[in-house]
Structure formats: structure tokens, C-alpha cells
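Hi,

Apologies if this is the wrong queue. I'm a grad student, and the batch job for Aminoglycoside phosphotransferase domain-containing protein from Methylibium petroleiphilum produced an output file that my downstream script rejects. I'm not sure whether the problem is my script or the file. Here is the sequence I used:
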Amino acid sequence: MTTPEPIRWTDPARQHAFMDWLNAQAAAHGLVVGSLRAASADASFRRYFRIDGRDGPRIVMDAPPTHEDCRPFVGVAALLRGGGLEAPEVLSWDEPHGFMLLSDLGATTYLEAIRRADPAQSNALYLAALDALVQLQRIDAHAQVPNYDRALLQRELDLFPTWYIERHCGQRLDDKALAQLQRCFALILDACTAQPSVLVHRDYHSRNLMLPREPGGPPGLLDFQDAVWGPVSYDLASLLRDAYVEWDESTQLDWAVRYWERGRKAGLPLDADFGSFWRDFEWMGLQRHLKVLGIFARLSHRDGKDGYLKDLPLVWRYAHRVASRYNGLGPLAHLLEQLAGTQRESGYTF
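Support response: The file is valid. Your script probably expects a header line. Output copied below for reference.
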């Protein structure tokens, strides 16, 4: 058996508090403290560890309260589990310190699974994800999560000029170009806010879906703490136009139709015309991808997480394709083309 690498700490006081808490959990839950090892990290300040125990492996979360508020995670986890979905169970929570013991949904993400799966297996995984999404969207959580309103959607779009255009590409828009961009933003926001609202996971994609423990079972759901009440097409856009894996448009259309049929049957507030729903899906995806361009740039330049830069070209292609298709978005498509030239000089191929 390989000895786990030691966990690195920069704050000795926090390390001592963590070990005191973990030893107490070991006694209560039959955990093997010496088996603690890194499980994953994400784009936030949270860290995740896996630890062995008498009832199988468990997950330990380290989320410094000065940077992370765990209350939304706990609340949304309860909502999802109450809706019959596979979300982690909170077994213990030290709220003042931000330490949490969770059930383990497994070690294989959808992204890892589909990279080695054949098309039929990938299709089965995505159909299971679509079923889980419909189930998630049937949860009435309007009063329990924030509204994904126009102001929040606008703040997300503003990450694009601040972090991607100015910081990453080194470009500053003149007044005319900025006014054109804001007009495009207004059109996007009009399209997004006109959609019916449901519970939105907000990061429903291949890195946050876990391979079912049993073949044909539902996926495990992770990273749902930012859930909101917002546009019905948002999570589908996250899934089918994922920043980490690309599907051809015919496959996207097939899965979108299957979702739409399932959602309509389940009573979700979906447009009776699939063509109109597909347009909503495209415009919602555009909002998300402009936001993601900004977020990935910020992760690199502010947080030193350069690994996300390799995913920028795919996100750019998603955004450019939609901006090139619809009336009123021509200035945005042209701007993206100009910025792509800047990116080529930096070694990223679009």
C-alpha cells in the first residue's frame, strides 16, 4: 500500500485545528487518519481529501471561512438529496472552522469516464445526466436560493471585458467599441431573462458529474453551492457546451431534443416549439461562455491557476459560433475575432 503524500498547510494554527477535528471524527466514524490523501481541488479556496473508514471511503472538505461560506453547500445538498438526487450527505460540519465530513460519490468524473468510453457508453451517461437534470429542475427552491436576475447576469458578463479583454488580451476598448459591446450584452440579457425559471445548478458539466456507482444509475452531483433560481436552459448549456469536452452539434441537438421531450413530459416550463427553445439555449450558452472566458482569465492572472488557459480556445469557439449566427451580435463576433488574433500571438490556437 502506497503511503499518502503529506497534506501541505500554510497556517499551523489551522492545521492543528483540522487534526483535532479529524481525530474526533475518526473516533466517531471509524476513520483511518493515516489514509488521508488529496482527492481534488477546484477553482475556489476549497480543498477535498479522501479518507478510508469502516463504512468505506469518505470525503473531507477544507473550506476556510474567511474565503468560503459553506452554508449554501449544506442547504443545496439537502435540497438535492430531498429531491432524490445523488448529492453528498453531510456527516459532520465544523462551521466555525470550515471543516466538513461528507459521503463519497466516487473517484471518477464524467470527464474521465467519457475520455475512455465508446460512443454508446457516453450516450448512456449523458441520457442519465439529462434525466437527473429534469429531476433537479422539478425541485421547488424559489424561496431557498438566490435569484439569477439581470443584475447578477450582468455582473458575470462584465468579467469578459475586465479580465479577458483588458487583462488577458491586453486590449482596451474605445468608447464606440464599448458601447457596441454593451448593446450586445443587453440583447443577451433580454433573451436570458425572458426564459422561465427553475432551480439552476450553475456548473452542471463533466467535471462535476460523477460516474454512477451502479451501471445505469444516476450521476453524483458536485459543486452545486452556487445554485440559483434562473433560466431553464442554463444547465443544459453547461452540460452540452462544456468547457472541457466538445461534442459535435448534431449530438448536441439530439441530446437537447431528448431533454426537451423529457422536460415537457415532466411539466417543466419549456417552450412548446423546440426551435424557440434551441435559440434560448444558444443565447444562454453565449452568456455563460463570455463569463467563463473572464473567469478562466481571472483564475490565471489573479489566482495563478494557469491550467484553465488551455480550455480558452473551446470556450471562444462556442461564443464566436453563436455570436456569428444571430442578428445584433455581429459586433461581438467581430470583437472576438480581433481578440483571437491577440491570442494567437500568445500561442493559443483558435
